[in-house]
Structures are given as C-alpha cells and as structure tokens.
C-alpha cells in the first residue's frame, strides 16, 4: 500500500511540475523583468533615450521599431535574426519580398553603439528589437507595455522561412489568424495586433489590385476614388514613394480610429477589411472601435505574447557585438 501511495504522490508532483519544466526548457522561464538590473542597470533607460532622440530626428523610426518586432518574432523566434546582413553564408531576411518597405535598420546600430559604450557585449540585439518597439509604441501614443528581457541573438538567418511565416498583403484572414495562432496569440489578440496598421502607410504597389480596373466593392466608393488619386496608375513603380495612410485622421497615433475606419469600409488591405466582416473577428472590431482603452489593453497583451515567442536563452544564442553580423562573421564580412 505504502509503495502504491508513494508512486501516486510522485506522479501527482510530476504532473504539477510538468508545466514549469516545459516552460523552463522552452526558454520562457529565462526571460524576466529587469534582466539587466545588475549587468547593465541603465540598459532600458539608454534604449528609451535613444528611441526618443531618433524619433525627434526621424519620426518614422517609431513605426519601424514596431514593424521590426513583428517581422523578427513571427519568424521562428524573437532572436534578432531579422537584423543579420549577408555574410559567411548567411542570406539576410531583409532580402525577402516580405520585407518590402522596411527601413531604418541603421539606427538599430545607433542604439547598440550607445549600449556597447555603457556595457560591452551585454545587451542582446533581440532585446533591443523588443524594447525599442515598446518605446516606439509609447512615442506613437500607444500604451506602455511591461516587457521581459533576457533574449539571446540568433547565429543564423531564416531567409527560407520568411515567406512561409509572414503573411502576404493579399493573404486571407484565415491565413493571418493561423500565423499568429502558431505563436500563441488568439483571435482577439490578432485583431488587436493588426491595429498597428493604425500607423504607417501602404505602398501603392500593394494596393492597386483593389483599385483597378474597378474599385473593390468592399471599399467605400468615395474612399476608393480618393485612393485612386493617391495611386493614379495600376502599374506603379515599386520604388516610387506613392502611398496611402492606413489612418488618415491620426496617421502617427496607435489608436482605435483604425477600427472605426474598418466599420466605414476604409480598410486599405484586404485582410484589414475582412476583420470587419468575418464573424470570428467582427465583434472584436466593433468593441475596439467603441473603446480605445479596451483596444490598448488587448494590444498590450498581444504585443507581450509576440515578444516572448520562442526566445533563445543561455547558450542557445549569443550576444552579438554588432547587430548586423553573427560574432563568428564579424571578421569575415563581405
């Protein structure tokens, strides 16, 4: 009897500990708030100040930081693989068509240099991606998000995986929901994350299929004509700086005007407009359009989840000396 009871108790303890063990081996347990409190106490303040300085000089950097987080974290891991340049057999993820329109990578180097001066080879580029996004969201009028740190940097690029993991602008809502679900983000969180489209812009090359030869009937007709004036040809030069704002009213503020526009048939991308018509997402669109606080709450939750997607910790990764190159490639750059 005693032996059976002993085995039963051991099994019960194992089941209780199993979630913690899984969390530990997945790396999540290694992320923590104020990870650099002892090794580099000023790290988060330095990143914050650099983001503010760059925003004051180049306002569009704030949007870039938010997009960097999405592109980095949804591809395998939040590990700064996005930042790697071509070197030593690595093909940069930035070369993918999914990275079209991304810019300001050089200013990540500015932030890294400030950190290296304070604490050499201590703060990972992956944490710079995450924390610069957090501060960028604040600069864009969004909520301040509590974010864990302790990520390590990838030694490799996932160029061949980018097209599979990052939805295309023409992809269906089901594809987008599936992509985010794979990182642990539910439907409500996905609707909130797409609210990042409240800021930034859409290049005409990604929009004209909804305007020519006739305006997509799911677009507000007057808005469709306005967009045709912004994008006056069905064959725009991909390099041309012709674009439309996602949110004409408050184009540099992360707010719920995005959802109000969707309810008025003013979503720029197909997936945007599908949010307002699909029964899985429409109730959340209506609720976020009516309550900016609720949108910010769900946006914070979803960004936090995204930022913790499959992080590399301990010896799974490294602390890059230069965010553009794995440490093994810094002496072999070409």
TrEMBL record:
One of its GO terms (molecular function) is heme binding. Removal of H(2)O(2), oxidation of toxic reductants, biosynthesis and degradation of lignin, suberization, auxin catabolism, response to environmental stresses such as wounding, pathogen attack and oxidative stress. These functions might be dependent on each isozyme/isoform in each plant tissue. Its main location: secreted. Ca(2+) 1 binds at residues 72, 75, 79, 81, 93. Residues 1-29 form the signal peptide. Keywords: Biological rhythms, Calcium, Disulfide bond, Glycoprotein, Heme, Hydrogen peroxide, Iron, Metal-binding, Oxidoreductase, Peroxidase, Secreted, Signal. Disulfide bonds join 40-119, 73-78, 125-323, 204-231. The record marks 67 as: Transition state stabilizer. This is Peroxidase. Coiled coil: none annotated. It catalyses: 2 a phenolic donor + H2O2 = 2 a phenolic radical donor + 2 H2O. Substrate binds at residue 167. The keyword NAD does not apply. GO terms for biological process: hydrogen peroxide catabolic process; response to oxidative stress; rhythmic process. Binds 2 calcium ions per subunit. It is an enzyme of class 1 (oxidoreductase). Its cofactor is Ca(2+); heme b.
């Amino acid at each position: 009897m005693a032996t059976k009871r002993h085995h039963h108790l051991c099994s019960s303890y194992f089941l209780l500990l199993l979630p913690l063990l899984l969390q530990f081996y997945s790396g999540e347990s290694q992320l923590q708030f104020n990870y650099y409190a002892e090794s580099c106490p000023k790290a988060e303040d330095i990143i914050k100040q650099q983001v503010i300085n760059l925003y004051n000089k180049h306002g569009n950097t704030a949007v870039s930081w938010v997009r960097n987080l999405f592109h980095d974290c949804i591809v395998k891991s939040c590990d700064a693989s996005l930042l790697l340049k071509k070197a030593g057999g690595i093909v940069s993820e930035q070369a993918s068509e999914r990275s079209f329109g991304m810019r300001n990578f050089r200013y990540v180097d500015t932030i890294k240099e400030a950190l290296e001066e304070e604490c050499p080879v201590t703060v990972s580029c992956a944490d710079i991606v995450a924390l610069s996004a957090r501060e960028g969201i604040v600069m864009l009028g969004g909520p301040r998000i509590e974010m864990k740190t302790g990520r390590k940097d990838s030694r490799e690029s996932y160029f061949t995986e980018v097209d599979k993991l990052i939805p295309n602008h023409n992809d269906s809502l089901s594809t987008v929901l599936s992509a985010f679900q794979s990182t642990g983000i539910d439907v409500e969180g996905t609707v909130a994350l797409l609210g990042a489209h409240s800021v930034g812009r859409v290049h005409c090359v990604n929009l004209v299929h909804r305007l020519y030869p006739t305006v997509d009937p799911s677009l507000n007709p007057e808005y469709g004509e306005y967009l045709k004036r912004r994008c006056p040809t069905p064959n725009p030069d991909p390099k041309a700086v012709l674009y439309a704002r996602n949110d004409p009213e408050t184009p540099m503020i992360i707010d719920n005007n995005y959802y109000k526009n969707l309810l008025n048939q003013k979503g720029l991308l197909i997936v945007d407009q599908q949010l307002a018509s699909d029964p899985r997402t429409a109730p959340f669109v209506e609720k976020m359009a009516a309550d900016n606080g609720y949108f910010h709450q769900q946006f914070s939750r979803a960004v936090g989840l995204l930022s913790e997607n499959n992080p590399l910790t301990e010896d799974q990764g490294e602390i890059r000396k230069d965010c553009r190159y794995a440490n093994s490639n810094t002496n072999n750059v070409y």
